[in-house]
Amino acid sequence: MTAVAPSTSMGLDSRKLGMWTFLASEFLFFGAFVSAYLLYIDETNGGPGIEIFDIPFTSVSSFVLLMSSLTMVLAHNSHVRGDLRRMRLWTLATAGQGMVFLGGQVYEFTVFYREGLDLTQSPFASSFFFLTGFHGAHVAIGVLLLLGLYSLSLTGKVKVGQDVKTEMVGLYWHFVDIIWVIIFTVVYLIPELRV
Amino acid sequence: MSTTGGTAAETAEHEEHAGHHPTPQEYVRIALILAALTALEVSTYYFEFGAAAIPLLIALMVIKFVMVAGFFMHLRFDTKLFGRFMYTGLGFAVVLYTATLLIFVVDANQ
Amino acid sequence: MASTTAAAETPRLRPSKPTGFLSWVATTDHKRIGILYFWTVLAFFFIGGVESSLIRAQLAQAELSVLTPEIYNQMFTMHGITMVFLVVMPFAAAFFNYLLPLMIGARDVAFPRLNAFSYWFYLFGGIFLYSSFFLGGAPNGSWVGYAPLSTNAVSNMAFYAVGIQILGVSSLASAINFIVTIINMRAPGMTFMRMPMFVWMTLTTSFLLLFAVPIIAVALFMLQFDAVFNAQFFQPASGGDPILYQHLFWLFGHPEVYIMILPAMGIVSEVMPTFSRKPLFGYAAMAFAGAAIGFIGFGVWAHHMFTSAIGPVPRSAFAVATMFIAVPTGIKIFNWVFTMWGGRIRFTTAMLFSVGFVSMFTIGGLSGVMHAIVPHNAQQHDTYFVVAHFHYVLFGGALFGLISGVYYWFPKVTGRLMNEKLGKVHFWTWLFGFNLTFGPMHMSGLLGQPRRTAVLPGELGATVELYNLLSSLGVVVLAISASIFLYNLIRSIRSGEASGDDPWDARTIEWMTATPPKHHNFDVIPVVTSRDEFWHRKYAESEEGIPVAVPVGASVDEESDAGHDEHIHMPDPSLWPAIHTLGVLPLGYGLVYANWLLVGIGAVWMVAGMFGWIIEPLAEGDDDEPAVAGAAAH
């Protein structure tokens, strides 16, 4: 464990506090996308609607993203225990799962596009692609952060005892994951009940 | 540099929680529970749950959310301030956007 | 002080000289960043002022054609965008930057490089917006950018969507920075209830930004994709709803008005006690009224949409909520009045501007409550009455407060005093010109003059024409007044009278250190034992409650600690924030012109800049560098 409490007014790490502040604001960001989606769920303009979703496929990629949170927390746990080798391994595993999720999203978008659903088709299409696309952009940034963390731990910039760095990347990663927990239910599963 | 006398209680609370982080085995157990909950969610697609489906899905979503935030993001072990920040943001989002959507619904019923 | 710069090996790409152009580009010193903000704001204020002069020239008489309608629309749009996003908000940020660490007894903000990042994003965002004038015309769909007009190429609002997005990133980053700084970096003993009121208002403003900016970000993304990539968010033809844009805009836009006014309220709450020689009346009430304004401010957005398609139930609910917000605002106004009541008032220029703030803001606040009444609102909507209202709160309110702050803290920044005689001329001409410009708009608005109309229609009659002529003459007075201010500012920087460390007999701890402050702010971080710490170190209270001066030097922190300043680690200068943010320009133009090559260049540039930023060696070491952490433990 890092034994030293940072010497700040609240005894908190400024970087962690900053990350939490940022994540708090992100809820407002994704909330607006979710609202637009819910408002436009039936505005298909004659094009495909929610029946286009492939629930089994999306379930698998949701599961992959959920499990990447496990490997992320294990990476942090290894870092706390000073095991940089395992930390790197789990970090790479997390990034790999993130890339699998992104690959799945690219595949999903391509299939939808072939079936006639593209950004300019309808308000439903625009809001769907925006919500999942911006989430995907967050995942992509997360993968970049993970790969950065991995390479910096190789060059010695991220050292034993600096597990706050892994924790910061982890906080971001878990946040992206819990946003997907919400999206998976609100965007895919609940509307699908009506089909 | 400095520690503030007035916030000693908060610091103590922080220290008390530190070191209670779960072991890797516990993390795996939590992940297994999350996996099982996800399986239950997906089953609503294959089986008919009737009127219970939506409340069930929302409940499962909330449980998964709280578990990931509490254990993986360490909200249960870290200072309460972090959790307050996050749930303030979440609360703002839920209240504001629910109100916005309600305005559309109320308007549609006129 | 030479001892403050640690003599570690300096990486390449880091300017080592403490002066010169590069030292400003690379600065991470919150005081220098504050000064950069100030001059940039002044430049944009000049441009925005020229735009408003052109507007008033066009409207000086009925049926004029000084400007074509196309140019007129660009002028009023850019005037609004400039004054809101490039003047008032960053003007407040200039004060936050310079004063916040000094007021809470910190050596810098929590994330100094992120602070520089915020400034560069602001500067590049402003340049980006104004470059549109040379690239086929500026945005002309008004600062609210209502869809679906704004999604049409004729309105040129793609520059607006991307430009405001850039400025939003700047605001969000500084909001996070200031929140963490206030929560985490207060001096020993500086509890929340001992913080200067300005710090409270900074905290509230930062939280408003934190929760409001992401909402406008989404609205702008949607707008931009509708405009450039043919998305269907706000296109009624395919089932889209333009009302959604209005909701998202005002969900941000109403907190935004408090984002602009709360910093000024904080400044006035510092100036008034100092020049009344009394503590701020009702400190706790003031702090919580500010927080209440921020909180309720999120729940009143739809009062901007009373004439849009929303039903009677929401209209009633938002009318009530809007009237409620007058309560905490009223608390504040009464507390300022009671602060002055029975005080020994010195009418310096700073104090005059603060009194001007309270009186002008009250007028604007009262016309604001009139808008809360739904039928009244329908009558006034989109008339000059609204223009009068928001200029009374933003110009008579925010700007008066901010200028008061300039006069008050000018000695802190420069070590010199501004000329009081010129200052008073500035104040009285400013007050007169302001009321001459915006007072008549109340009447012309009630008589039916519409806003955002390029030509003043002759059929409104001679009375409305007279009011418009008065308004235009008022702008002339304001221009003269602003020139006096600028002259005074520059002359005082060059050759103003030396101020000494504490020219105003001030109350808060930013005046306890040297004037102008050293790079590291405080030789010894003060230990705070009360509100108005500096005052209580200077004065004890006699049995009748009258302040009695304490002998000089009797209550200074133990000087034996002074040797500590050899160990002060200050953040290193860094070019990376400027380099990193430069990538936003190709990214922005790429998004406006749907040019994926430019977007790619910008994105790669920014990612590369981010890595340069991360791997840049820091002389002071990371906080949790094992060696540093170990040293701190022992």
In short:
Chain A is mostly helical and 195 residues long.
What would you note in describing this structure?
The complex is a heterotrimer of chains A (195), B (110) and C (634). With 195 residues, chain A is mostly helical. Chain A has a single domain (55-192), classed as Four Helix Bundle (Hemerythrin (Met), subunit A). Helices cover 75% and strands 0% of the residues of chain A. Chain A contains 5 helices and no strands. In chain A, helix 2 packs antiparallel against helix 3 (84-114), helix 3 packs antiparallel against helix 4 and helix 4 (123-155) runs antiparallel to helix 5. The model of chain A is unreliable at 1-6 (pLDDT under 50). Chain B is mostly helical and 110 residues long. The termini of chain B are far apart. Chain C is an all-alpha fold. Chain C has helices at 21-25, 30-58, 69-104, 112-131, 158-184, 197-229, 242-276, 283-296, 312-324, 326-340, 349-372, 374-380, 384-414, 420-446, 462-495, 533-538, 576-582, 584-592, 596-615, 626-633, and strands spanning 539-541, 547-549. Chain C has a two-stranded antiparallel ribbon with strand order 1-2. The longest helix of chain C is centred in the first third of the chain and has 36 residues, at 69-104. At the A-C interface, helix 1 and helix 4 of A face helix 5, helix 6, helix 7, helix 19 and helix 20 of C.
